[in-house]
C-alpha cells in the first residue's frame, strides 16, 4: 500500500485534538441573543467573557479558551444557517465593507448553508486572507510598515489600540497564534483535510469580522480618521509567466489548448491513482480541477497550492527519512513548508534528497522558486494567502501554470500501469515541455533579460537622426576624432581577447565590434543554461553588481536616444546657440565610441554570468577582490549616466572617463583575473 493511502491525517495529535475535539467538549448551550443584539451588533463583552487566562502571567490560556468558546461558535453557526440569503445581506453586508471584500464574506453564508466540507475549507482560506489584508489596512491608521506575518499583526499594539486587547485575544484563539487553533496556517500549508475543519469555526470568524467592522466604525467616527485600502497587486507582463517554452505554442495558447475538458478529465483520473496525492486530500484536488473548469481561477489555485505543498512534503519526509515532519509541528517548532523543502541542506546538514526523486529536479525546484519565492516573481502563495490579490479578477494565465505544473507532478508519481494516460496525446506535450523549464525570476535570469533589453535599446542608435558626417568633420573647434579612434581600437583589442571564451560562430577576428555579430553573440550567451538552484552568496553578490551595471548601461542608452532626437530637432529648426551646436557635434562624435563601449560591457556581463556559478563554487576564489573590480566598472557606468544626462552633456569628460575605464578593464583582462578565465 502506498504511503499516500496509509496517511489518515497530517495533524499531529495535539493539533488534531485542539481543532477537532476541544471545542466540542463543553456541552453548555449559548443563547445567540446574549452575544448578538436585536439590531445585529456583536456584544463583545459577552464574547470576551469566555476567554481564559493563565494565573501566572495573565497570558491567554488557549486550550481553555477554545473549550469555553466552543458553544459560542455552535450558536453562531446555527444562527447563520437559519438566515436566508436576503437576511444575511441586509443584516451583515454593511459590516463587511471595511474589508473591501464584501462579496467574499457574503459568499461564506451560502457555504455554511450547504456545509460541504471542501467548500467550508475554501471559504475559510479566502476569509482569513481577506481579513488579514483588511486588518493590515487598519494597522496603517496608526503605524508604518505593516507586519508580514499574521501572528505579528494580530499581536501589534496598533490593532489593540483600535479594537481593544480583549477582542484581539479572541481573534488569536482562531488564527495567528501557533498556540491556538491556527486555522489559517493549517489550511494554507496543506495540513488539514476537508473533514477536519469544523464549519462552526468558519461561522465564528465570519461573526468576528462583522463585529470588528462595528468597532472600527465607532473608532473612525471618534477619531475622524479615514480607512484607506492598499491597492491590490496586479500581475503585469503575464507573458513572463508562460512557463513551457515554445516549440508548440506560447504557454498561454498552449495551455488554453491542452488544459481543456479532456485534459482535466484525465487529470481527475490521475488524482485518484497518483501516489503524490494524499487520499484524505482527494476532495481538495477534485474541487480544484472543478473550479478551473468553471473559470473560478482564484479558487482553483487557492485549493491547489496547499495540496502541492502536502504532496511535496510527503515526498520530502519519505526520501529524507523524517516521517514525523509530515505532521503539523507543535507551537515550539516550525512547520515543514515549501521554504524548508526547497533548501539544499537539512537541519542535520545532510543533503536534501527531494530534488533527487524528481524526474526533472531543476524544473520542479526552479518552478517552485520562481512562482513562490523569488522576490521578482509572482509569489503567488504569499500574495494570495495574505490577501494582496483581487480574487474576482485573478488571471487564467496564472492558474494555467499552477494547474499545468500539478498535472506534471501527478504524472511523474503515478504507477507504471498508468502508462496509457501518461502517453496520452494531451498529457505528453505537457511533460515534454516541463523538462525544458528554465528559471525566469532568479537574479541571473533577470540579469539576462536586462542585457537583452539594453541590447535592443542600443540597436536603435544607428537609426537616430543625425547631421551629415561632413558637417561634423568641418566644424572648427571640434577635437577628438583621433581619441575616438584610439578608444575604439582598445575596445577591439579587448573583445578580441575575449573571443576565445565565446561561441566561435558569432565572432569575427576582422571586425570584433561588428554590432550584428555582437547582438547575435549576446543572444546566444544569454541562452546558455546557468545553474540557478542553490546559488551561494558570492554568486548573488556578483550578479547584484552586474545587474546594476546593466541598468546604468541602459540608462546611458536612453539618454543618448532622447538627447540625439531633441538636439537634431533643434539643429534643424536652428534654435541651438553656438556652444550648444558644438556640444551636439561632440555628442555625435562620442556616440561613435560609446556604442562599442556599451557592447563591450554587455559582453563582459554575459560572459561573466555564464561562468559565475562554476567559479564561485570553487575554492579558493577571492571574489571580494573581483567585486572591487566590478564596482569600479559600476562607478564608471554611474558617472557615464551623469555625464550623458540632458542636464550635464559633458561629452569631452565622457571620453576621458572612458579611456581610464578601458585601461582598467584591459589590465584585468590581460591578467586573466575575470571569471571567464577562472572557469576554464
Automatic annotation (TrEMBL):
Membrane recorded as keyword: yes
Keyword Transmembrane: yes
InterPro entries named in the record: DUF4209, ERMARD
One Pfam entry name: DUF4209
Top-rank taxon, per record: Eukaryota
Domain DUF4209 span(s) in chain numbering: 131-211
Record field: transmembrane: 597-616
Keyword vocabulary terms for this entry: Membrane, Transmembrane, Transmembrane helix
PANTHER family hit by this protein: ENDOPLASMIC RETICULUM MEMBRANE-ASSOCIATED RNA DEGRADATION PROTEIN
Protein's name according to its UniProt entry: EMARD protein
Gene: Ermard
